Amino acid sequence: MDKDQPQPDASADFHPDHVTRATFQALLTRYPATVEAVTRRKVTDRVLQASIRGKRGKRVPPAQVQNAELDAEQKKQVEAEVQAYRELDALRYEAHTTTTSAAGEEAEAGAAAFPKTSLDALVKPLRGVGVATASLLLSVGTIRDPEHEAPFYSDDSYLWLCLKTFPGLGQESGQTDSDKVGKKASKFKRNGEINVKYDLAEYRALWTAVNALRARLNETETKTETEPGSSSGKVSCADVEKVAFVLRHLDSSGYLEPDLVDHDSQGVKANPGSKRKRFDEAEKTRGRKSKKQT
Questions:
Q1: How distant, in Å, are the alpha carbons of 24, 252, 255 from that of 31?
Q2: Is 188 helix (H, G, I), strand (E, B) or coil?
Q3: Average pLDDT of every residue of the chain
Q4: Phi and psi torsions of 198, nearest 5°
């Protein structure tokens, strides 16, 4: 276990108003592994589903797909697709070093008047480009300018910051007017997709929430900069987006899984469920305390 890396806390509070810089950094370090795990699972399921459906001519129940195994050719296909997505994802966050497209330049030029003017400059002249796609162009085009950096409207970020949906108890506590966006309707559609409109009002709420979180976490940056495991830079919009993704897929992130420990110069693998159990117990304890206070 690397002591210089931020370590997961079983009692961590993931509420966007309460999450600490240390917890944020620990989640952020799990992003690459989370992307890898989620992508691999989705690609594997799709490949198996397509293979079995081709043999039987109809859709297969998820349980049968989980029990199926990949053959050698399918494994190669999965690895190729996972690698392709890994490279694409890396390019997405490194695009600020090579952004030369007209769309990127236009997004960067209009960022000073963000959010509405910049969004309109991208949405109106480009057919088929909505607020979500425009926000992606803005996020890429402004990533070189921390003062005007714009967040991408991702489902993960909106769920965490605006709908206050995240792992653990107390998800509905501390709600404000901006949290009422999804109260009249279910947060999710029947097909599992997030129930949002992807309109300007929602993006404005997300933009405000992202920058509020960044401002709060960056206030502690000077104090924690010299501490082990702390970040050496400011929290960016991209960092918030990555952490939101990890929280939505926490079970696949490895955040709650114990690492290899070496207390007696021997690598010992701890009980895989021990840290998750401590996490659940900590959440229950905090929930009981919250009820007593109310």
A1: 11, 10, 10
A2: strand
A3: 73
A4: 55, 45
| Closest to 150 measured CA to CA, from 219, 203, 229, 95 | 203
Closest CA to 115 of 14, 224, 204, 45: 204
* Vertex 8 angle, CA 7 and 14, to 5°: 135
User: Residues 229, 19, 215, 135: what is their CA dihedral angle, to the nearest 10 degrees?
Assistant: 100
Q: Is the peptide bond before 8 cis (omega within 30 degrees of 0)?
A: no
Measure CA 60 to chain center: 30
The tens digit of pLDDT for each residue in 29-74 reads 999 999 999 999 999 988 888 877 666 555 656 655 555 678 888 8
Greatest pairwise CA separation for the chain in angstroms:
65
3-state SS class at 194:
strand
Q: What whole-number distance in Å separates Cα of residue 260 and Cα of residue 17?
A: 32
Show Cβ contacts of residue 184 under 8 Å, excluding neighbours closer than 6 positions.
Answer: none
The DSSP symbol for 184 reads S
180 DSSP assignment: G
Q: How far is CA 48 from the centre of its chain?
A: 26
**How many CA atoms lie within 13 Å of 255's alpha carbon, on the beta-carbon side?**
31
Q: Which residue has the tokens 């501390």?
A: 174
Q: What is the sign, positive or negative, of the torsion defined by CA atoms of 279, 281, 286, 287?
A: positive
Backbone angles phi, psi at 268, to 5 degrees: -120, 125
Compute φ and ψ for 135, nearest 5 degrees: -65, -30
Quickly tell me which residue has 């709600």 as its tokens. Answer: 175
Burial class (CB in 10 A: 0-12, 13-18, 19+), 61: exposed
